[in-house]
Prior knowledge:
Blueprint: H1 5-15, H2 23-37, E1 44-49, E2 58-62, E3 77-85, H3 88-97, E4 106-111, H4 112-119, E5 127-131, E6 141-144, H5 145-160
Parallel strand pairs: 3-5
Antiparallel strand pairs: 1-4, 2-3, 5-6
Helix pairs in contact: 1-2, 2-4, 2-5
Amino acid sequence: MVVSLAAQAATLVDTAPQNGIPTAAMQQVADVLTQVAQHLDHLQYTTLRYPDGGWLTVRVVEDPAAGDSSSEGSQPTTHLWIPAFGHLEDAHTTLAELKDRAPELETASFGVLELLFLALGLSRADGIVFYDQAGDRQQGKTVACRALTEQVNRSLRRWASPPPSMA
């Protein structure tokens, strides 16, 4: 069942105390995640995971020399992204394509806010690439973990800082 962003945010906030997170702090986090999610097209995404909970990652190599003469001699940069599919059929197509190389992979669906929240704790991936268009597994919207974490931290610092004195 697909749940609205408001309901997903409420679930994050309501379950925060069970995870040792103050409700007010989680409200700040949920607000940031909701802002990010509003730029995505779906309320739920499907990822590919291993039975041990590990994520399927896609390696993307950026060649700094491509189209930029100022970066001659620079080494390519490798990034690891977790693909998240807005259409279940695309996840199943990818799963079928990888069946011979990774037969243990399985689909796992998440509300977009839960997936973004999980991204805050990712250490082995650079972020998540959200594939919103059915049948298009080439062009996606990326959410970098580091940038998302920085955005959440800024919000938490503003929330925790006392207002300036009016004296």
